[in-house]
Amino acid sequence: MLTQIRGLHHVTSMAADAQENNAFFTKVLGLRRVKKTVNFDAPDVYHLYYGDETGTPGSVMTYFPFPHIVKGRPGTGAVSETAFAVPEGSLDDWRDRLAGAGVGGIEETRRFGEKRLRFLGPDGEGFALAEAPDDMRAPWPGGPVPVDKGIRGFRGVTMRLRDGVATAELLTFMGYREVAREGALIRLALDGGNGADVIDLEVLPDAQPAREGAGSVHHVAFAVENRAAQADVRKALLEPGAHVTPAIDRDYFWAIYFRTPGGVLFEIATNEPGFDRDEDVAHLGEALKLPDQHAHLRDRLERSLPAIAD
């Protein structure tokens, strides 16, 4: 069993409109945009990162906003819901806030005894706010949401699968353990992690497969401390036959990728070097930052990328 995984690092999804996406996460959810850069493989498309004050691993939601992208279809083989941790007693305020902003799909629920507020993102993606009374992580204090109500980071994600056995075995190998079952849901948790410690598997054998598009989660990233820990994880995954990429420099972390038995793309990302490697913490997410291989495109990209109002 692996011991290097610290919980979630980030979740990356796709969107249709950069400005709408930015407004939703910064103005409605009150997260901080900690980086404005471009897709490594498609530099004409932004890569936007939102999180706490410094983009602490376990707090960062990232997006590729592709103009004219088709709408995704929920289904199996994909993440169906991303949950954020909020303080106990804050859901009434959040319900009013989301409703006042015209957010759709608002629904109060309970899962494994947790009070939750489900809602939809701008592209129909599934989100939830889960009360987490023991979560001591600090929210972004500079946004529009009061600190005593603010998002602390991820609680976890839900993966919708046709068969959860192989994915549960993989997560167990990664250090998670099953802690509860409820209907079609299996909850796995990581002890002593970074706070973003929960993975729920929703097993629906007869559901249709997901179709990637706007509102789809592209991949889920798990955190390790450094490149040495990442190398150990990669070696351990390769031994039973997983197809794992070499380590790739993503400027703010190093990443390896592999496809799970259930179809979800996993990434293992390092906590180093962090989002302040090329910007002061006070000014994170303000300037357009480009990977070295795309630096020569700056003039063209600054003209062609859509403006994002802060």
UniProtKB/TrEMBL annotation:
SUPFAM superfamilies: Glyoxalase/Bleomycin resistance protein/Dihydroxybiphenyl dioxygenase. It comes from Jannaschia rubra. Its EC number is 1.13.11.-. This is Putative ring-cleaving dioxygenase MhqE. GO terms for molecular function: dioxygenase activity. Pfam families: Glyoxalase. Residues 7-132, 153-271 form the VOC domain. InterPro entries: Extradiol_RC_dioxygenase, Glyas_Bleomycin-R_OHBP_Dase, Glyas_Fos-R_dOase_dom, VOC_core. Keywords: Dioxygenase, Oxidoreductase. Gene3D superfamilies: 2,3-Dihydroxybiphenyl 1,2-Dioxygenase, domain 1 (3.10.180.10). The gene is mhqE. It comes from the Bacteria. It is an enzyme of class 1 (oxidoreductase).
